[in-house]
Amino acid sequence: MDIADIATREYVEVDADERLSKVRSIFEHENPRGVIVTNDGGYTGVITQQQLLQSHVEDDTKAGAMVKAAPKVERTADIRDVARMLVEGGTKVAPVFEGDGLWGIVTADAILDAVVDNLDVLTVEQIYTDNIVTVTEDTHIGRAINLLRENGISRLPVVNEDGRLSGMVTTHDIVDVAVRTMSKATEGDRAGDIDRILDLPVYDEMSSPVVTIDLEDTVDEAVELMFEYGYSGLVVTPEYDDSMPAGILTKTDILRALSYTEEEHMDVQITNIDLLDTITRDDIRQSIEQVVQKYQQMSVQHAHVRFQKHREKLRGTPLIQCQIRLRTNRGQVAGSGEGYGAESGFRVALDKLERNVIEMKGMRSDEQYRGQLLRKLDEL
Fold it and tell me: Please, which pLDDT band fits residue 364 given cuts at 50, 70 and 90?
C-alpha cells in the first residue's frame, strides 16, 4: 500500500513568525497531531504537543524557534517504510511531498486505520512495553512533568496505595490544565499560577476510570479501543486482574511492529536517529548482536534503541540518554544510560544491557537446576 492512499491535504499550518501562544491555542481548540510550520510558504518543520509541554519557552516566542525536524515522505512511499520513519523520527505526523512541493501530511492514526483489519494476527503480549513508569495519586504535577520528560513518554498510569490502577495522566491533561489556568491569569499573576499548577496532585487532573487491554487480546482490538476513546496508549493488564498494570501499549509500539522486517541481520529501529554523531546504525546493530551472542538460547525478534537529548552540555556536546530494549523469545530485556554524545550514551546503555542479559542467563540456569533437582526428588 502506498502512502498516497491515506495521506491528506487537511492539516494545520502556521507561519514561522507566528507566536507560540497561537500554536498553544490551536492544540487546545483543534487538538491536531502536529502543526506544520512554513516560512514564506515553504516547509520548515513540525511542532507537536509534547514539544510544547517539555519546553519552558514563553508565549511570545516565534513558532520557528520550536520547529522539530520530521521525515519527508514521498506520496509513493510504502506504508511500512513510513511507519519506520515515524518511529525513528519520534513523531506522529510527517509532511508528504510530491516532487519538491508540500502536498499534505500523513499521521500515525491514518496508517493504523488503514491496516487495523490486518492486526488480528498479533497479540498485545507480543509487542507491548513491560517497563512501566507509574505515579501515585498524590504525586505533584511538577514531578509528573519531570518523569514524562526524563523517560520520553506521554502518559503515566496512576496507582493507589495498594498499587492498583486508579487513573491516567497524560501530556494532554497537563497542557490542558496549564492553558486553562494561564488563560485566566493576568501577566502579573503568572509566576504564582505556574507554581500552583506544579503543586497540584495528579489525582485532580487524571482521567478515570482507565481503559485497559489484556495481554491475550489482539492488537486490532487495542487499536479499535484507542480510536473509540481517542487515546494514544492503553494500560496492559493480565487477564485475571484488570486493576494491576503490567505494561503499556502505545500507537508507537504498533507502528514499530508494522515495520518489522525479516532481514539477514537483527532488525534494529532507532528513535531520534538524527542524534547519531560518531556512531552509525550498523555499529549499533553489531554491538547489540555481540551482546546477544553471549546468551545462545536468546533469539532476538526485534531491537529498539531510543536516544533523547537533554539541555545539559559538556564543551558543546549534549547529554544524551539512550534506552535499548530487546524483544526476545525469553521475554523483554533492556538497558539504559546517559553520556555526552550519542555514542557515549549508547555504550553506557549497552553495558547495562549486557549485565541484564548475563543475569537472565544466570536465572535461566538456576531454573534449569531447580527443575533437575525437582525431577530427582520425584524419583526418590
Answer: very low
Q: pTM for the full model?
A: 0.71
Give the domain CATH number at 328.
Answer: 3.30.160.100
Q: Classify burial at 252, counting beta carbons within 10 Å of its beta carbon; exposed 0-12, middle 13-18, buried 19 or more.
A: buried
Instruction: Examine residue 379 and state whether it is found in any structural domain, yes or no.
Output: no
The pLDDT, as a whole number, for residue 250 is 93
Whose cell is 534503541? That residue is 305
Per-residue pLDDT band at 180 (split at 50, 70, 90): low
CA distance 118 to 239: 23
Domain of 173, in residue numbers: 122-255
How far apart are alpha carbons 37 and 22 in whole angstroms?
A: 12
> Is position 117 within any domain?
no
pLDDT at 372: 46
Beta strands in 21-149 (DSSP E): 35-39, 42-47, 73-74, 93-98, 101-107, 135-136
Of 266, 253, 270, residue with least CA distance to 349: 270
What residues have CB less than 8 Å from 363, skipping those under 6 apart?
none
pLDDT tens-place string over residues 182-200 = 555 545 544 455 567 788 9
Region 283-290: mean pLDDT is: 90
Q: Are 371 and 364 in contact (CB under 8 A)?
A: no
Residue 15 falls inside a structural domain: yes
Instruction: Tell which wins on pLDDT, 220 or 92.
Output: 220
Cα–Cα distance for residue pair 46/162, rounded to 1 Å: 41
Q: Is the pLDDT of residue 58 over 70?
A: yes
Contact yes or no for 60/36 (Cβ under 8 A)? no
Q: Where a domain ends, among 75, 107, 139?
A: 107
3 state SS of 46: strand
Let me know if residue 380 belongs to a domain. Answer: no
Question: How many domains would you assign to the chain?
Answer: 3
